[in-house]
Amino acid sequence: MLVRYGRMNTLGFFEHHETKISKVTTRVVIKTNKGLELGHLVGRFTSYKGGQLKLHEDRIKEYFDDSDIDFSPGHDGKFVRYATAADVSEERHLKKITREEIECCRRFIKELDLPMKIVDAEHIFGGERIVFYFMSDGRVDFRELVKKVAHEYQTRIEMHQIGSRDEAKLLGDAESCGQQCCCQRFLKLLKPVNMRMAKMQKATLDPAKISGYCGRLKCCLRYEDKTYTALKKRLPKKNTRVKTKHGQGKVVDTQILTQLVIVEYESGEKAAVGVDELEIIGSSETTKKSE
Questions:
Q1: Which stretches of the chain are DSSP H helices?
Q2: Which of 40, 148, 160, 286 is 20 to 30 Å from the Cα of 138, by its Cα?
Q3: Could you tell me if 8 and 60 lie in one domain?
Q4: Domains contained in the chain, number
Q5: Cβ atoms within 10 Å, residue 244
Q6: Looking at residue 181, what DSSP letter applies?
């Protein structure tokens, strides 16, 4: 079964022996390499038949391969049971004491004068460990910190260094579009985004408008990039000589989504022509020199 779990909203496959999957909102107790955790069952309405996941793992792997993401479709653990009211109550209790654990860790960081900032923490449901997520400009020797916190809570302590995008994944709420941050809602891994994508889509280059909660370029700029790139390849470059039913001219501009080419004729007149309605007959001297 597919389960979303953990503070980082990880999505993973879990082995189970259930013959019927609930079609109501379902919490499940799972066993991962960290211990017992609580998660949310994914795709309960459309993805299961007779307890079996209809969406083959190869299809999911194909999606990630196509998105240039390293992804292993191996199992993340085992399904233990459907969560009870007591399990959910225990989860709420752990979230409350996690806030105390964060403050304790921050106090020790101040005492040790370590160059790091605790962003969030996760007390694993089974009690096997506490995972702290921190930010730092470089590597940090936190061995003494781990010893102090472990002695305080008598459990295993893990420190995970994260970046600004991961911070948004943990703490972000609503984006400028009015929706919950994509990194929280459904993105499994955060893929790189660059300014080329914004320029190609002719989005505003105002940093305040194309930056997300994390202060980096918005992840959504990637969503249509593959389509824009494919459409742009169909368009001739500027200064290319073309022939249309109205005569010969050169390309002075293009519109990617509409697939229109702005052609300037020898008479000086300009007109928008569909890319399928013109014939490329060569490049101008300017283009040849640049090549």
A1: 57-66, 85-112, 143-153, 164-171, 182-185, 195-200, 207-210, 225-233, 285-290
A2: 148
A3: yes
A4: 4
A5: 16
A6: P
CA distance between the termini of the chain:
55
| Partners of residue 129 on adjacent β-strands | 156
Q: CA distances (Å), 181 to each of 135, 167, 168, 186, 279, in order?
A: 20, 12, 8, 9, 45
Weakest mean pLDDT among 19-23, 121-125, 195-199 = 19-23
pLDDT in tens, 67-101: 555 455 567 889 999 999 999 999 999 999 999 99
CATH number, domain of 283, equals 2.30.30.140
Q: Domain boundary residue among 210, 228, 246?
A: 228
Calpha distance 49→122 (Å, rounded): 33
Per-residue pLDDT at 44 exceeds 70: no
User: Do the Cβ atoms of 159 and 145 come closer than 8 Å?
Assistant: yes
Residues 56 and 92 in one domain: no
Residue listed under structure tokens 């039913």: 245
Asked if 2 and 42 touch (Cβ cutoff 8 Å), the reply is: yes
Its domain, for residue 281, covers 234-290
